[in-house]
Specification:
This protein is an alpha+beta fold. It has a domain at 55-126: Translation Initiation Factor Eif1, CATH 3.30.780.10. Helices cover 28% and strands 18% of the residues. Strands 3-4-2-1-5 form a 5-stranded mixed beta sheet, covered by helices on one side. The termini are far apart. Pfam families: SUI1. Residues 28-47 have a biased composition (Low complexity).
Amino acid sequence: MARKDYTPKQPAATDNPFASLSGLSDLPAGPDEPVPPEEAGAESAGAMKSAPLRVLIDRKQRRGKEATIVTGFEGPEEDLQALGKKLKVACGVGGSVKNGEIIIQGNQRDRVVEELLYLGYTDVKKSGG
């Protein structure tokens, strides 16, 4: 029995969804210079990144369980909440933000310091031993 030829009898489909975009070559050029960020926002973000952050391990009032605490953050509460969320996700644990401090469950001090340095915070130190 002879094998059947399964090659398509019609040419390949030419329905290209981007074909209609080929006539867009005469678009206006973008801006010559990049748009600078807001001056106040850039200064405050730089000041926050240079604030001295201390990372310590605490067991007080936690029934012997360890918690990593980040203190010394200066800036809006929203930024503190966002940083706390980033640190919790990076460590893969729970935690909270209370009284201007970020509390991460467990002994995550080395990982938190590493993540803060990665995020651009320059003055980060381990505290308490």
